[in-house]
Amino acid sequence: MVLCQRHTELRSRFGFAGIVSAPGWKRGAAGVLASAPAYPVDLVLRLSATLFEKLPNRSGLRRIGLHLHQVCRTAAILAGARREAGSWRALLKFFGPRLPVLLYHDIGPPTPLAENPSLTICPIIFERHLRCLRRLGYTSISASQWLAWIELGTPLPDKPILLTFDDGCASLVKNALPVLERYGFSATIFVITRLSSWVGLPLMTMDEIKRWFARGFEIGGHTRTHPKLTTLEPIALHEEARGCRTDLIEAGISPVSFAYPKGLYDKEVRSAVESSLAIAFTTEEGLNDLRTDPLLMRRTMVRPGDTLFDVVLRAHFGWSPMYELRSYLSIRSRIRSFGQRIRHFYH
Predict the structure, then answer these.
(1) Quick one: three-class SS letters along the chain?
(2) Who has greater pLDDT, 253 or 3?
(3) What pTM value is reported for the model?
(4) Does the N terminus or the C terminus of the chain have fewer Cβ atoms within 10 A?
Protein backbone atom coordinates (compact mmCIF):
# COMPACT_ATOMS: atom_id res chain seq x y z
CA MET A 1 0.00 0.00 0.00
CA VAL A 2 2.82 2.39 0.86
CA LEU A 3 4.51 1.61 -2.47
CA CYS A 4 1.26 2.34 -4.34
CA GLN A 5 0.85 5.63 -2.52
CA ARG A 6 4.34 6.70 -3.57
CA HIS A 7 4.04 5.35 -7.13
CA THR A 8 0.37 5.58 -8.12
CA GLU A 9 1.09 4.32 -11.65
CA LEU A 10 1.76 0.87 -10.12
CA ARG A 11 -1.72 0.46 -8.60
CA SER A 12 -3.12 -1.62 -11.45
CA ARG A 13 -0.43 -4.28 -10.89
CA PHE A 14 -1.52 -5.05 -7.34
CA GLY A 15 -4.31 -7.39 -6.28
CA PHE A 16 -6.22 -4.59 -4.57
CA ALA A 17 -7.14 -3.23 -8.00
CA GLY A 18 -9.06 -6.45 -8.65
CA ILE A 19 -11.25 -5.84 -5.60
CA VAL A 20 -12.73 -2.72 -7.19
CA SER A 21 -13.74 -4.54 -10.38
CA ALA A 22 -15.07 -7.61 -8.53
CA PRO A 23 -18.82 -8.25 -8.09
CA GLY A 24 -20.49 -6.54 -5.14
CA TRP A 25 -20.61 -9.67 -2.97
CA LYS A 26 -16.85 -10.16 -3.34
CA ARG A 27 -16.15 -6.56 -2.42
CA GLY A 28 -18.40 -6.99 0.60
CA ALA A 29 -16.62 -10.19 1.64
CA ALA A 30 -13.26 -8.45 1.25
CA GLY A 31 -14.50 -5.62 3.48
CA VAL A 32 -15.50 -8.10 6.17
CA LEU A 33 -12.09 -9.80 6.00
CA ALA A 34 -10.32 -6.45 6.19
CA SER A 35 -12.21 -5.63 9.40
CA ALA A 36 -11.51 -8.94 11.13
CA PRO A 37 -9.78 -8.66 14.54
CA ALA A 38 -6.05 -9.24 14.31
CA TYR A 39 -5.71 -11.76 17.15
CA PRO A 40 -8.14 -14.46 15.82
CA VAL A 41 -6.68 -14.09 12.32
CA ASP A 42 -3.16 -14.60 13.63
CA LEU A 43 -4.27 -17.61 15.69
CA VAL A 44 -5.96 -19.29 12.71
CA LEU A 45 -2.92 -18.54 10.55
CA ARG A 46 -0.71 -20.43 13.01
CA LEU A 47 -3.10 -23.37 13.29
CA SER A 48 -3.62 -23.64 9.53
CA ALA A 49 0.15 -23.51 8.95
CA THR A 50 0.55 -26.37 11.43
CA LEU A 51 -2.12 -28.43 9.66
CA PHE A 52 -0.53 -27.76 6.31
CA GLU A 53 2.96 -28.77 7.44
CA LYS A 54 2.29 -31.85 9.59
CA LEU A 55 -0.57 -33.66 7.86
CA PRO A 56 -0.13 -36.02 4.86
CA ASN A 57 -0.17 -34.46 1.37
CA ARG A 58 -3.50 -36.00 0.34
CA SER A 59 -5.24 -35.43 3.62
CA GLY A 60 -8.56 -33.60 3.54
CA LEU A 61 -7.58 -31.74 6.69
CA ARG A 62 -4.39 -30.58 4.98
CA ARG A 63 -6.45 -29.08 2.16
CA ILE A 64 -8.73 -27.40 4.71
CA GLY A 65 -5.67 -26.05 6.49
CA LEU A 66 -4.34 -24.67 3.20
CA HIS A 67 -7.64 -22.90 2.43
CA LEU A 68 -7.82 -21.46 5.94
CA HIS A 69 -4.26 -20.24 5.66
CA GLN A 70 -4.99 -18.51 2.32
CA VAL A 71 -8.14 -16.85 3.69
CA CYS A 72 -6.41 -15.59 6.82
CA ARG A 73 -3.39 -14.41 4.86
CA THR A 74 -5.72 -12.43 2.58
CA ALA A 75 -7.50 -11.00 5.63
CA ALA A 76 -4.20 -9.91 7.15
CA ILE A 77 -3.09 -8.21 3.92
CA LEU A 78 -6.44 -6.44 3.50
CA ALA A 79 -6.47 -5.33 7.13
CA GLY A 80 -2.97 -3.89 6.80
CA ALA A 81 -3.94 -2.00 3.65
CA ARG A 82 -7.11 -0.72 5.33
CA ARG A 83 -5.13 0.60 8.29
CA GLU A 84 -2.62 2.27 6.01
CA ALA A 85 -5.39 3.92 3.93
CA GLY A 86 -7.30 5.01 7.04
CA SER A 87 -10.54 3.14 6.31
CA TRP A 88 -12.01 0.52 3.98
CA ARG A 89 -13.87 3.26 2.07
CA ALA A 90 -10.62 5.20 1.60
CA LEU A 91 -8.89 2.06 0.36
CA LEU A 92 -11.61 1.40 -2.24
CA LYS A 93 -11.48 5.03 -3.33
CA PHE A 94 -7.71 4.86 -3.74
CA PHE A 95 -8.00 1.84 -6.04
CA GLY A 96 -11.41 2.88 -7.46
CA PRO A 97 -13.69 4.24 -8.71
CA ARG A 98 -15.67 2.46 -11.39
CA LEU A 99 -16.39 4.92 -14.18
CA PRO A 100 -19.56 4.86 -16.32
CA VAL A 101 -19.31 6.48 -19.75
CA LEU A 102 -22.54 7.50 -21.50
CA LEU A 103 -22.59 7.80 -25.29
CA TYR A 104 -24.83 10.27 -27.14
CA HIS A 105 -24.90 11.42 -30.76
CA ASP A 106 -27.52 13.90 -31.96
CA ILE A 107 -29.63 15.99 -29.56
CA GLY A 108 -32.57 17.54 -31.35
CA PRO A 109 -36.05 17.02 -32.79
CA PRO A 110 -36.48 14.08 -35.20
CA THR A 111 -35.70 15.05 -38.78
CA PRO A 112 -36.54 13.20 -42.03
CA LEU A 113 -32.99 13.89 -43.21
CA ALA A 114 -31.50 11.65 -40.53
CA GLU A 115 -30.51 8.27 -41.94
CA ASN A 116 -30.41 6.71 -38.48
CA PRO A 117 -33.21 7.95 -36.16
CA SER A 118 -31.85 5.84 -33.29
CA LEU A 119 -29.01 8.37 -32.91
CA THR A 120 -31.31 11.29 -32.04
CA ILE A 121 -32.45 12.15 -28.51
CA CYS A 122 -35.16 14.76 -27.92
CA PRO A 123 -33.75 17.88 -26.14
CA ILE A 124 -36.42 17.74 -23.43
CA ILE A 125 -35.56 14.10 -22.71
CA PHE A 126 -31.84 14.92 -22.67
CA GLU A 127 -32.40 17.64 -20.09
CA ARG A 128 -34.31 15.17 -17.92
CA HIS A 129 -31.31 12.85 -18.08
CA LEU A 130 -29.01 15.59 -16.81
CA ARG A 131 -31.42 16.62 -14.08
CA CYS A 132 -31.67 13.01 -12.91
CA LEU A 133 -27.89 12.49 -12.92
CA ARG A 134 -27.35 15.67 -10.94
CA ARG A 135 -29.92 14.65 -8.33
CA LEU A 136 -28.19 11.29 -7.98
CA GLY A 137 -24.95 13.07 -7.16
CA TYR A 138 -22.93 12.37 -10.29
CA THR A 139 -20.12 14.73 -11.24
CA SER A 140 -18.88 14.80 -14.82
CA ILE A 141 -15.21 14.40 -15.62
CA SER A 142 -13.22 14.47 -18.85
CA ALA A 143 -11.17 11.77 -20.52
CA SER A 144 -8.05 13.73 -19.51
CA GLN A 145 -9.09 13.66 -15.85
CA TRP A 146 -9.50 9.89 -15.99
CA LEU A 147 -6.02 9.55 -17.49
CA ALA A 148 -4.59 11.83 -14.79
CA TRP A 149 -6.15 9.62 -12.11
CA ILE A 150 -4.77 6.45 -13.72
CA GLU A 151 -1.25 7.80 -14.22
CA LEU A 152 -0.80 10.28 -11.36
CA GLY A 153 -3.49 9.47 -8.83
CA THR A 154 -5.10 12.91 -9.25
CA PRO A 155 -8.26 12.82 -7.08
CA LEU A 156 -11.65 12.30 -8.70
CA PRO A 157 -15.11 13.20 -7.35
CA ASP A 158 -17.01 10.58 -5.34
CA LYS A 159 -19.40 9.68 -8.19
CA PRO A 160 -17.66 10.46 -11.47
CA ILE A 161 -19.35 10.04 -14.84
CA LEU A 162 -18.05 10.76 -18.33
CA LEU A 163 -20.50 12.12 -20.92
CA THR A 164 -19.43 11.70 -24.55
CA PHE A 165 -20.85 12.74 -27.91
CA ASP A 166 -19.77 11.08 -31.14
CA ASP A 167 -19.56 12.79 -34.56
CA GLY A 168 -19.87 16.40 -33.33
CA CYS A 169 -23.39 17.07 -34.62
CA ALA A 170 -24.27 20.74 -35.14
CA SER A 171 -27.37 20.23 -32.98
CA LEU A 172 -25.14 20.09 -29.91
CA VAL A 173 -24.37 23.79 -30.18
CA LYS A 174 -27.98 24.73 -29.49
CA ASN A 175 -29.55 21.72 -27.79
CA ALA A 176 -26.86 20.06 -25.66
CA LEU A 177 -23.82 22.13 -24.71
CA PRO A 178 -25.69 25.11 -23.17
CA VAL A 179 -27.87 22.68 -21.19
CA LEU A 180 -24.78 20.86 -19.96
CA GLU A 181 -23.34 24.16 -18.76
CA ARG A 182 -26.59 25.06 -17.02
CA TYR A 183 -26.55 21.82 -15.02
CA GLY A 184 -22.84 22.05 -14.25
CA PHE A 185 -21.73 19.15 -16.48
CA SER A 186 -18.85 18.93 -18.91
CA ALA A 187 -18.47 16.53 -21.82
CA THR A 188 -16.01 15.10 -24.31
CA ILE A 189 -16.99 15.60 -27.96
CA PHE A 190 -15.47 13.32 -30.60
CA VAL A 191 -15.51 15.18 -33.90
CA ILE A 192 -15.18 14.26 -37.58
CA THR A 193 -12.78 16.82 -39.04
CA ARG A 194 -13.18 16.59 -42.82
CA LEU A 195 -16.96 16.26 -43.31
CA SER A 196 -19.76 18.82 -43.05
CA SER A 197 -22.49 16.20 -42.46
CA TRP A 198 -22.83 12.57 -41.43
CA VAL A 199 -25.80 10.18 -41.90
CA GLY A 200 -27.92 13.16 -42.94
CA LEU A 201 -27.00 15.28 -39.90
CA PRO A 202 -24.97 18.53 -40.20
CA LEU A 203 -21.77 18.65 -38.17
CA MET A 204 -20.17 21.42 -36.11
CA THR A 205 -17.88 23.76 -37.97
CA MET A 206 -14.27 24.11 -36.85
CA ASP A 207 -15.05 27.59 -35.51
CA GLU A 208 -17.84 26.13 -33.36
CA ILE A 209 -15.55 23.34 -32.16
CA LYS A 210 -12.87 25.88 -31.20
CA ARG A 211 -15.41 28.05 -29.37
CA TRP A 212 -16.73 25.20 -27.22
CA PHE A 213 -13.22 23.93 -26.59
CA ALA A 214 -12.38 27.38 -25.22
CA ARG A 215 -15.37 27.07 -22.87
CA GLY A 216 -13.96 23.94 -21.26
CA PHE A 217 -15.43 21.11 -23.34
CA GLU A 218 -12.85 18.49 -24.25
CA ILE A 219 -12.51 17.69 -27.95
CA GLY A 220 -11.40 14.26 -29.15
CA GLY A 221 -10.78 12.67 -32.55
CA HIS A 222 -13.31 10.57 -34.46
CA THR A 223 -11.34 10.26 -37.74
CA ARG A 224 -11.52 12.55 -40.75
CA THR A 225 -14.31 10.82 -42.71
CA HIS A 226 -15.83 8.20 -40.31
CA PRO A 227 -14.78 5.05 -42.22
CA LYS A 228 -14.78 1.48 -40.93
CA LEU A 229 -11.21 1.50 -39.67
CA THR A 230 -10.93 -2.29 -39.65
CA THR A 231 -11.30 -2.37 -43.47
CA LEU A 232 -8.57 0.18 -44.28
CA GLU A 233 -5.06 -0.39 -45.54
CA PRO A 234 -2.29 0.71 -43.12
CA ILE A 235 -1.58 4.04 -44.88
CA ALA A 236 -5.25 5.02 -45.00
CA LEU A 237 -5.74 3.82 -41.42
CA HIS A 238 -2.98 6.05 -40.08
CA GLU A 239 -4.23 8.94 -42.21
CA GLU A 240 -7.65 8.71 -40.57
CA ALA A 241 -6.46 8.04 -37.02
CA ARG A 242 -3.60 10.53 -36.93
CA GLY A 243 -5.01 12.95 -39.48
CA CYS A 244 -7.96 14.04 -37.35
CA ARG A 245 -5.54 14.83 -34.53
CA THR A 246 -3.41 16.89 -36.91
CA ASP A 247 -6.49 18.81 -38.07
CA LEU A 248 -7.41 19.66 -34.48
CA ILE A 249 -3.89 20.67 -33.52
CA GLU A 250 -3.75 23.03 -36.51
CA ALA A 251 -6.95 24.60 -35.17
CA GLY A 252 -5.33 25.20 -31.79
CA ILE A 253 -6.85 22.15 -30.06
CA SER A 254 -4.71 19.48 -28.38
CA PRO A 255 -6.73 16.24 -28.30
CA VAL A 256 -5.75 13.32 -26.06
CA SER A 257 -8.74 11.04 -26.74
CA PHE A 258 -10.32 9.14 -29.63
CA ALA A 259 -13.55 7.25 -30.32
CA TYR A 260 -13.56 4.33 -32.74
CA PRO A 261 -16.22 4.92 -35.44
CA LYS A 262 -19.11 2.51 -34.80
CA GLY A 263 -16.94 1.03 -32.06
CA LEU A 264 -15.00 -1.07 -34.59
CA TYR A 265 -11.37 -1.86 -33.85
CA ASP A 266 -8.77 -4.60 -34.08
CA LYS A 267 -5.12 -4.95 -33.15
CA GLU A 268 -3.94 -2.79 -36.06
CA VAL A 269 -6.52 -0.07 -35.39
CA ARG A 270 -5.63 0.05 -31.69
CA SER A 271 -1.94 0.33 -32.56
CA ALA A 272 -2.57 3.17 -35.03
CA VAL A 273 -4.52 5.14 -32.42
CA GLU A 274 -1.98 4.42 -29.68
CA SER A 275 0.79 6.00 -31.76
CA SER A 276 -0.76 9.46 -31.39
CA LEU A 277 -3.41 9.42 -28.64
CA ALA A 278 -3.46 8.20 -25.03
CA ILE A 279 -7.06 7.06 -24.51
CA ALA A 280 -9.73 5.66 -26.84
CA PHE A 281 -13.35 4.60 -26.51
CA THR A 282 -15.25 1.60 -27.86
CA THR A 283 -18.99 0.86 -27.79
CA GLU A 284 -18.56 -2.22 -25.60
CA GLU A 285 -20.74 -1.85 -22.54
CA GLY A 286 -19.65 -1.96 -18.91
CA LEU A 287 -17.88 0.10 -16.29
CA ASN A 288 -14.25 1.16 -16.40
CA ASP A 289 -11.76 0.75 -13.57
CA LEU A 290 -8.06 0.80 -12.85
CA ARG A 291 -7.45 -2.33 -14.91
CA THR A 292 -9.38 -1.24 -17.98
CA ASP A 293 -7.15 -0.77 -21.03
CA PRO A 294 -7.15 3.03 -21.62
CA LEU A 295 -7.30 2.37 -25.37
CA LEU A 296 -10.38 0.14 -25.00
CA MET A 297 -12.60 2.18 -22.72
CA ARG A 298 -16.18 0.93 -22.37
CA ARG A 299 -19.29 3.02 -23.10
CA THR A 300 -23.03 2.50 -23.02
CA MET A 301 -25.18 4.20 -25.65
CA VAL A 302 -28.24 6.14 -24.50
CA ARG A 303 -31.13 5.42 -26.88
CA PRO A 304 -34.28 7.37 -27.82
CA GLY A 305 -36.56 4.81 -26.18
CA ASP A 306 -34.70 4.80 -22.87
CA THR A 307 -36.60 5.69 -19.73
CA LEU A 308 -35.00 7.56 -16.84
CA PHE A 309 -34.63 4.20 -15.14
CA ASP A 310 -32.60 2.98 -18.12
CA VAL A 311 -30.29 5.98 -17.77
CA VAL A 312 -29.90 5.30 -14.04
CA LEU A 313 -29.03 1.67 -14.79
CA ARG A 314 -26.53 2.67 -17.47
CA ALA A 315 -24.87 5.07 -15.05
CA HIS A 316 -24.75 2.47 -12.27
CA PHE A 317 -23.90 -0.74 -14.16
CA GLY A 318 -22.54 0.50 -17.49
CA TRP A 319 -25.51 -1.04 -19.32
CA SER A 320 -29.28 -1.33 -18.97
CA PRO A 321 -30.72 -4.76 -18.14
CA MET A 322 -34.20 -3.31 -18.80
CA TYR A 323 -33.27 -2.32 -22.35
CA GLU A 324 -31.84 -5.78 -23.00
CA LEU A 325 -35.01 -7.38 -21.63
CA ARG A 326 -37.24 -5.20 -23.81
CA SER A 327 -35.13 -6.03 -26.85
CA TYR A 328 -35.33 -9.75 -26.09
CA LEU A 329 -39.09 -9.66 -25.65
CA SER A 330 -39.48 -7.60 -28.83
CA ILE A 331 -37.49 -10.13 -30.86
CA ARG A 332 -39.53 -13.01 -29.46
CA SER A 333 -42.74 -11.16 -30.31
CA ARG A 334 -41.58 -10.60 -33.88
CA ILE A 335 -40.62 -14.26 -34.30
CA ARG A 336 -43.99 -15.35 -32.90
CA SER A 337 -45.83 -12.96 -35.22
CA PHE A 338 -43.83 -14.19 -38.21
CA GLY A 339 -44.60 -17.79 -37.32
CA GLN A 340 -48.31 -17.03 -37.10
CA ARG A 341 -48.28 -15.40 -40.55
CA ILE A 342 -46.49 -18.43 -42.01
CA ARG A 343 -49.04 -20.81 -40.49
CA HIS A 344 -51.89 -18.64 -41.73
CA PHE A 345 -50.39 -18.64 -45.25
CA TYR A 346 -50.14 -22.43 -45.45
CA HIS A 347 -53.61 -22.97 -44.00
Answers:
(1) CHHHHHCHHHHHHCCHHHHHHCCHHHHHHHHHHHCCCHHHHHHHHHHHHHHHHHCCCCCHHHHHHHHHHHHHHHHHHHHHHHHHHCCHHHHHHHHCCCECEEEECEECCCCCCCCCHHHEECHHHHHHHHHHHHHCCCEECCHHHHHHHHHHCCCCCCCEEEEEEEECECHHHHHCHHHHHHCCCCCEEEECCCCCEECCEEECCHHHHHHHHHCCCEEEECCCCCCCHHHCCHHHHHHHHHHHHHHHHHCCCCCCEEECHHHCCCHHHHHHHHCCCCEEECCCCCCECCCCCHHHECCEECCCCCCHHHHHHHHHHCCCHHHHHHHHHHHHHHHHHHHHHHHHHHC
(2) 253
(3) 0.82
(4) C
Pick 39 or 95 by higher pLDDT. 95
Q: What pLDDT is attached to residue 34? A: 66
As its CATH architecture, domain 101-326 has Alpha-Beta Barrel (3.20)
Residue pLDDT, tens place only, 164-189: 999 999 999 999 999 999 999 999 99
pLDDT of 112 reads 81
Domain coordinates in residue numbering, the chain: 2-95, 101-326
